[in-house]
Design goal:
The complex is a heterodimer. By secondary structure, chain A is mainly β. In chain A, about 0% of the residues lie in helices and about 50% in strands. Classes of the chains: A mainly beta, B mainly beta.
Chain lengths: ~110, ~120
């Protein structure tokens, strides 16, 4: 069983600051890692796939990096609409799809 | 524009059954990799089932043997038959689509709430 672990659980940031979210896999997932953003009462929205490719319509301030077992989502300058919960998800261990437990980015 | 609309959620008793539907528009369900993902109140996302475009199906351990994923091409609709429901199945259930079958979810429905309680 593959386990995805995200840290920190909560990130208290101010608008304009740089946010760095981490995701660790219990075994290598190569580059098969996606990030999602979820706001209260809404469905998740794909932000990054392939570890570093932005999804359609995602602003350039979002970037992803990493491979194997260590991944990072960076938001270069937080905007008010970026405060949300972010989930990572692996899709290397076929046919399973496994989510991390989420990181909440909240306003300090 | 691709759209997914879930329905069928509600209150069920422990041991009971419910069938969720996910009506698709703007694309063909039978050509797609379609999943169900759930989210318990205040908790994270949990993938529970997928149906491939070749009709192969897979389940998470938590629902295997109790839930069945299927689709009706004529209605362009995805289903989740949930039997032997438990209180821990209480969640918002989302259907989600992998456009290329690559493993990540590009399209999501708005979710339907299932509450299992006596």
């Amino acid at each position: 069983e593959i386990v995805m672990t995200q840290s920190p659980a909560t990130l208290a940031m101010s608008p304009g600051e740089r946010a760095t979210l981490s995701c660790r896999a219990s075994q290598s997932v190569s580059y098969n890692l996606a990030w999602y953003q979820q706001k209260p009462g809404q469905a998740p929205r794909l932000v990054i796939y392939g570890a570093s490719t932005r999804a359609t319509g995602i602003p350039a301030r979002f970037s992803g990096s990493g491979s194997g077992t260590e991944f990072t989502l960076t938001i270069s300058s937080l905007q008010s609409e970026d405060f949300a919960i972010y989930y990572c998800q692996q899709y290397n261990v076929w046919p399973l799809r496994t989510f991390g437990q989420g990181t909440k980015v909240e306003i300090k | 524009e691709e759209q997914l609309v879930e329905s069928g959620g509600g209150l069920a008793q422990p041991g009971g059954s419910l069938r969720l539907s996910c009506a698709a528009s703007g694309f063909t369900v039978s050509d797609s990799y379609m999943s169900w993902v759930r989210q318990a109140p205040g908790k994270g996302l949990e993938w529970i089932s997928i149906i491939h475009n070749n009709d192969n199906t897979y389940y998470a351990d938590s629902v295997r043997g109790r839930f069945t994923i299927s689709r009706d091409a004529s209605k362009n609709t995805l289903y989740l038959q949930m039997n032997s429901l438990r209180t821990e199945d209480t969640a918002v259930y989302y259907c989600a689509r992998e456009r290329g079958g690559y493993g990540y979810f590009e399209d999501w429905g708005q979710g339907t709430l299932v509450t299992v309680s006596s």
